[in-house]
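User: Can you predict the 3D structure for this chain?
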Amino acid sequence: MRISEDKRKLLNQTLEKLRLDRYPYWTLWREVADFFLPKRYVWLQSDKERRARQAKNPYILDSTGTRAARILASGMMNGITRPSAPWFTLSVPGYDDDGGPIQQWADEVTRRMMVIMAESNFYNSMAVLYLDLVIFGSASVLIYEDHETVIRCYNPALGEFYFAQDYRLTVNTFAREFKQTVHQIVSRWGIDNVSPTISNAWKSGGARLLEEFDICHLIEPNNDGKAAVPSSFEYRETYWEKSCTMNLVLEQRGFHELPGIFPRWELTANDAYGTSPAMDALPDVIQLQQETKRKAQGLDKMINPPIVADVQLQHRPTALLPNGITYIAGANNVGAKPLYEVRPPLGEMTADIQEVQQRIQLTFHNDLFQMISQLETVRSATEIAARQEEKLVLLGSVLERFENEALDPAINRIFSIMNRSGLLPEAPPEIADQELAIQYVSILSTAQRAVAAIPTERWLQVIGSISAVAPQVLNVPNFEELVRNYGLAIGVQARDMHTREEIEQISQEQAQQLQQQQQLAAGQGLVEGAKTLSETDVGGGANALQQVLQ
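Assistant: Here is the predicted structure, written as structure tokens:
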């Protein structure tokens, strides 16, 4: 479609400003990529560097850093968005019907959303996102509608994309520059929407279909009235050819919600890009590669040292392999011997390398996800819980940010797509236009909440020990609410508990049953007394009256 010259200039200026804002991170990202994922993030290199480094990896000699990053990414994937188990539930605030029609509707919506996520490439994209996040501190996944799988997710690579954020420090502008072949461009946008250059390449066919062109992509708020997208859409998206000098764009459309998720690991001030555990571990990883190289060089010189040889051996065959013999003339010939002895302190070097490896693994929280397997001795459940409590505190802020910046918008986006496609059950009329509340029930989220239940356990232990000598302390806790809140904290679903009204009704029924049992027991006592009285031989007259009185 054709746009005005001013709008085309505005698009290019926005992209250029985003590029300048990202530049300070460029060199850091390149160094992190070199020592963690050099083959994957070639977008951080120039074309010449890319071709030179495709043959070998000159940086990584010890893979501890890369393995530690993958363990953290896999642990977060399994602990936050585990594909094989529900990791979130939906509810309607203010409508706590505990298994009634509203909760049944919310459960069915959750089930259908989980099915759509499983049948699409959502979890594959999330696995890539976690690895990007722990290594580079910034990641992105675009979530588009798809006519085959309802949703389709894409992972723009680091080096392609740019971030900008609003006053709440939330990413609301996303841009990228990427390459596509002529065949890909025309297949997506059609021959009538591309520039004459790409159109001619398409018509020529053959190898020209594989020629690559730079495509620019911008997602931004649609609140300035400077695009053809209706104002009813909250965001707009524009694609255009970077090299095209005409006022043409490939596509421009609107979205009711942000069509992607853009989480950051940790932020500093108002930076748009995050920092990561890999950046914290980078000095240790560089040191590890250097020490590994020096240790290998020392071993090499010990096994195959530099040799000083008699001049008579020059240009003569020698046998320097084990058990080899070389014969030379002259009784006093020195033959060949090492130029100097190399005896590196291998024990000390190995110990220091192991210490550096442990520091790297700790930086990536491997001790949290491999806590039990790494214990040297068998520990009690109490000690393991205490250790887990200590470790989870370190990930608390990260998990909260990830829920706000990734999981919440992802669920909102998928729910909205399914709702517009008519794939959700009809909502009960009493909750029309109500906001849904999201509760995360993943392993890490449940563990985080379970930490809050530990004071309750300790309090009950103290009360139990004191009640033996001071029974009145049992009147202090509200046991009903205490047990309810404890269950919610450790992950028990509300629908698995009786409501307060049901508990009151059950208590009344139990009180009535107890009262009936007491009355029955009292009546039985009177009957037994009357029977005993009737069988008593009192002798009649005054003696009978005296026996009765007694």
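The radius of gyration is 37 Å. The chain has a mean pLDDT of 82.
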